[in-house]
Amino acid sequence: MITLYTAPSRWGLASVSPACMELETWLRIAELPYQTALATAQDLAQAPYGKIPFIEEAGQKWGDTALIIERFRQTQGVDLEAGLSQADRAIALAFRRLIKEHLYWGGIAIRYRDEENWQDYQNLVLTLVPSHWSKAQSVAFAEKFRQSILQQMTQQGLGRLSDADLYQLITADLQALSNFLADKPFFMGDRPTTLDATAYGHIGNFIEPPYSSPIVDFARQKTNLCDHYQRMSARFFADKETEQKASMLVTKLAQPLDSALAEEAGPIGLSMNEL
Ligand SMILES: N[C@@H](CCC(=O)N[C@@H](CS)C(=O)NCC(=O)O)C(=O)O
What we know:
Layout: E1 2-6, H1 18-29, E2 34-38, H2 41-46, E3 54-57, E4 60-63, H3 65-76, H4 86-113, H5 115-125, H6 135-156, H7 163-181, H8 194-207, H9 214-221, H10 223-236, H11 238-254, H12 257-262
Parallel strand pairs: 1-2
Antiparallel strand pairs: 1-3, 3-4
Helix pairs in contact: 1-8, 4-5, 4-6, 4-7, 4-8, 7-9, 8-10
The protein binds glutathione (GSH).
């Protein structure tokens, strides 16, 4: 059995890590059975390439989404690109790189560079921390993690840009994706391919979290990208949505009714009628 080491599921997303959500979606499109494990700080430190997602299979760990997918292509004979021409494969690969190597950093800026959003997002980073750590240790870990991610963004180059310049470049990526998807059900036509898994994991992580940013506003206005996100959720994650709604209901019913009702219902939140 494949174990996928991933980040927590929130806001209706399979994972708050776009790359983890991409790989989980790919496994579902490919219909490969897997189980998930929440990565801890220690898992991350020992992960191949020091990042999530990674998988464990038959006692061996494998890292990097693209390499894992390639490995499954070779070992399991799964090729989601089967039937695409060489030119279409090249286009799909270029879009995947655009999403993972460029657009991704726009999402990093929203969570890690914006002070207000970070105040909330750090709670998710803290889920990596073992429960026996003290509060001071945990807070220090979250801050160090933040600085390491922001440093990666500076080294990549996009971290050196002003918010206005970053907006210009990142929204151009979103516009290009929207133009390319146009009115097709999936990026490469009638069937989902790896690019749909990549786009789904990343676009979802822009539009679902309750973080304010002009980039998020722009993404939410791209109706065909939002519709693609909904289509992928309904087709591949209908079970997770039901699961999350059920666990939110239990949490809300455990709260005093007034505060549960006062809470704003997010994209997967419960409306007052559902309560
Ligand atoms: N190219 C890698 C990128 C993975 C990646 O960037 N993972 C992030 C979470 S989305 C991570 O582990 N960041 C922690 C770190 O860089 O220390 C893949 O697609 O698997």
